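Module 6 notes. Inverse folding takes a fixed backbone as the condition and produces residue identities as the prediction. Think of it as a translation problem where the source language is geometry and the target language is the twenty amino acids. Below is one complete input and output pair. Work through it position by position during the lab.
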């Protein structure tokens, strides 16, 4: 049997083909391509693809389903970038799905996230998907830091203005005034401390008196507590008196009093004018003197009748008239 032998050239050729094939397969494997399965191609157009590179991953709900194949400028819309996407053939993609560039990790690695739409119609290979861009972490930080930076700049400007104003206000004269104010405050505090010590001394000296005052207050409080029933009765009686006064015809009583006062005023007025006997007696001095003389003579007559009754009463058992004595003026008794 004749054995077929390969020449050295054929062996080298076969080895070269196998090596190239292995290299191509390894290259595509490292880039995420499966050369043994069919893949679909989709396109998305963006205004900015900063951070996105070829071979970046394509994910749906966190699952890697493809990669970015290449990027180039749109031939009809200068400035816009077309991104070619390779995706596994067995992944359903609705026609209204969105291809959104996002940051896949904290380091800022960019990728494309396919957000499935709700259309029942599936996208076909070669279709252009809706594009969207999610802000990167750096962009979000910049958006957050930018207002803070503006506020910081404004704050620094305001602070500088305040410093200038304070520099103008706190000149040498103001500093001297502040020094004087501080000294005055220190003196005031010293005086206050002295006053406090004086008050403490006074209180210490009056402790016994204060104790007596407190004891007296406690005694009064105890007495009030012990006489609570009496106080209650007094208050009750006062309330009853107040109710009685409230129910009384105060207006009528006041009217009667006013009427009596008016009558009394009329009598006094008549007396002052000399009307009537009392008025004559008060205002006519002659009548007063005559009345006084008559009263004095009446007193003398009564005194004489007491001392010499036989002058005025004539009585005899035998019918003989008594002897008449001569009148004698009564002698005034010495008090």
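Target side of the pair, the amino acids:
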């Amino acid at each position: 049997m004749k054995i077929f032998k390969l020449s050295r050239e054929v062996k080298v050729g076969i080895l070269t083909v196998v090596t190239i094939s292995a290299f191509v397969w390894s290259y595509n494997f490292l880039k995420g391509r499966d050369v043994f399965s069919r893949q679909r191609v989709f396109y998305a157009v963006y205004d900015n693809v900063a951070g996105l590179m070829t071979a970046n991953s394509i994910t749906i709900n966190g699952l890697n389903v493809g990669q970015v194949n290449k990027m180039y400028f749109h031939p009809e819309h200068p400035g816009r970038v077309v991104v070619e996407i390779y995706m596994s053939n067995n992944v359903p993609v609705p026609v209204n799905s969105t291809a959104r560039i996002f940051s896949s990790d904290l380091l800022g690695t960019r990728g494309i996230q396919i957000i499935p739409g709700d259309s029942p119609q599936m996208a076909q290979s070669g279709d252009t998907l809706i594009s969207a861009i999610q802000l990167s972490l750096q962009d979000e930080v910049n958006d957050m830091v930018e207002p803070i930076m503006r506020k910081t700049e404004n704050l620094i400007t305001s602070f500088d203005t305040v410093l200038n104003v304070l520099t103008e206000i706190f000149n040498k004269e103001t500093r001297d005034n502040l020094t004087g104010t501080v000294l005055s405050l220190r003196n005031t505090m010293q005086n206050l401390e002295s006053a406090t010590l004086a008050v403490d001394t006074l209180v210490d000296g009056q402790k016994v008196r204060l104790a007596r005052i407190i004891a007296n207050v406690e005694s009064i409080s105890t007495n009030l507590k012990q006489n609570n029933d009496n106080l209650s009765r007094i208050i009750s009686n006062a309330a009853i008196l107040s109710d009685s006064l409230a129910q009384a015809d105060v207006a009528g009583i006041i009217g009667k009093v006013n009427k009596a006062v008016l009558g009394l005023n009329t009598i006094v007025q008549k007396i002052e004018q000399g009307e009537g006997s009392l008025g004559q007696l008060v205002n006519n001095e002659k009548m007063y003197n005559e009345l006084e003389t008559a009263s004095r003579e009446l007193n003398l007559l009564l005194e004489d009748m007491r001392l010499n009754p036989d002058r005025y009463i004539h009585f005899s058992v035998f019918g003989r008239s008594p002897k008449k004595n001569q009148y004698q003026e009564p002698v005034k008794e010495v008090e």
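Reference fact for the lab report: The longest strand covers residues 63-73.
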